[in-house]
Amino acid sequence: MLTLSIETSCDETGAAVVQSTGLFSHRILANATASQIKTHAPYGGVVPHLAAREHSKNLPVVTKKTLTSFRERASGQSISKKINQIAYTAQPGLPPALLTGKMFAATLSLLWQKPLVPVNHIEGHLYSFLLDPAFRPSCGVRPRTELFPLVALIVSGGHTQLLLLKDIQAKKLLGQTLDDAAGEAFDKAGRLLGLPYPGGPEIEKAARTGKAHKFAFPRPLLQSNDYNFSFSGLKTALFYKTKELKQRNQKIQGQLRADLAASFQAAVIEVLTQKTLKAIQEYSAKSVVLAGGVAANQALRRELKNKTYALKPKPSLFIPPFEFCQDNAAMIGVAANVYSLLNKRTRS
Ligand code: KG4
Ligand code: ZN
Predict the structure, then answer these.
(1) Using a 6 Å cutoff on CB, does residue 161 contact ligand 1?
(2) Partners of residue 86 on adjacent β-strands
(3) How far is ligand 2, taken at its centre, from the CA of residue 12, in Å?
């Protein structure tokens, strides 16, 4: 199964060619992403109509780049003959941005007479775990016996979900954020600390030299008897702390900013990790997935790894490579191929 995939749900324009020879066997043959960070940075967040404008400008460029790089590998037949289907992110996302990608993908599908596959963006993030190097043929993960039940923590700018998978398609939502997503909380905290957009990577950078125990921020819903999350109160706690510090004529910069960033990050990570650990234990999960833009956070990756590996029996942990945590078209291609392979299986 060979798919050309398009991603335009937020502020990254992506195109990729993904080949899948089985549900657990995916190879990225070409992938290109154009980031819009510079366009949105002056506004401190993503402006939907600017995102759509940038996508329509960038889509032909990233698609050409992807197809050129694919052509170098695929000698002989024309690209349009080799590709089986065109996939695009259908939802969730910013409506004007999604529409741009849909129209582009639909045009290619008409032109090349290929099926058009709408993909759910969160499922794209979820199935990006199949890009973990552990799924390379030489590493020999035995999916049917070693993966399920699987607990997945999907943390991005728009979503925070804890999922349980009994197999590759049987998904159950265990819990989700009741207000801000984890990435959104990082971005808002970044703004409060005077850091550039997007706040997530900036908070992580600042936190490296900060003391995580300096400020005692709340751990919202940590003790709740469910798998839901809430981050807006934590952001408010940071707001009042910065206000109080400013009233005492302290400038939010240098070591003080690093300590605030480290303490805030520690609170988010503790809640995410503890809820995931609870789900692993309750459902006797054999493996754990961490995916989405916030999965790029090294401190979160480290903490989840340390805590997961300390459990007995020890579950496996799968995290997509760094470049496939944030929005990209490769994960949309993987998800489209999973859908198609599952459809084929049901029909046969
Ligand atoms: O998955 P993604 O690219 O887009 C959505 O689907 O929302 O995630 C983007 C989010 C942003 O909120 C960004 O601040 C956050 O991921 N993020 C991070 C880090 N890198 C990106 N958050 C914390 N630490 C990071 N290193
Ligand atoms: Zn995303």
Answers:
(1) no
(2) 4, 116
(3) 9
